[in-house]
Sequence to fold (291 residues):
Amino acid sequence: MSDTARERSQASLRRERLWREFKKAPPTAWFGMAVIAFYVFLAVFAPLIAPYGESEIVASQFEPWGHEYWLGTDNLGRDMLTRLIYGARNTIGIAFVTTCLAFFIGVVGGLLASTLGGWIDQIMGRVVDILMAIPPLIFALMILTITGTSIPVLIVVIAVLDSTRVFRLARAVSMNIVVLDFVEAARLRGEGLRWIITREILPNALPPLVAEFGLRFCFVFLFISALSFLGLGIQPPTADWGSMVRENATLISFEDITPLVPAGAIALLTVGINFVVDWFLHKTSGIRDDK
Fold:
């Protein structure tokens, strides 16, 4: 059998094994994956699905739910359903980019600290301790008040704050791997730092890091929504679920549940991601269900 045919056969076996694992997933995991797929669909195709423009004023303010405006209108007369759909694109997209940047900073720092050790590990650890000693919401509010609330600044500030948690996890996981025999053998072979990290340590540390990515995404997602609710997150006229709750909060006094719709969208996505993360952690931990 040629190398190409062997690679195709191995890839086919991996796909079949992955599909078998998906079929054995519990209902909660399937529910979570369905929720995530639905939100991703909304985020990608928002301009095609939304009935109006993101910032288009279509009626008078606080129109009730009806046939023309399914979720009514907001405090400026914009369609709430349209804002909700565009909010999926903006809130989820920014949270995803922020989480990726946080993971890049935290994982690279944690793996370098555990692999190199010594004074590098000590310095990086103390910097992380200082950042973690300050409540992240207060720190973010202070920085964003000084630097402004543009989307790039928002992403960088939250990513740096969140990377401290990722650093702690990556360092703790890799510290148990760097002392194993195969890592020492790679060092004795003369492999470089990049090889040891990418080929020896990272593949063995991947399962807990992937699970942490899902959890971190939830925390970042909620953090951005909280900042937007306080007025220092995603700024108008960009649609965002956190700011939508703030802008329409006065309706609660009139027994109108419209502000709860974006809040419910935030909660549903968080629950769905946690269901998938729980299932993934269960599969990668080696625990088996009793038959």
Summary: The domain at 28-53+65-284 is CATH 1.10.3720.10 (MetI-like fold). The chain has one domain: 28-53+65-284.
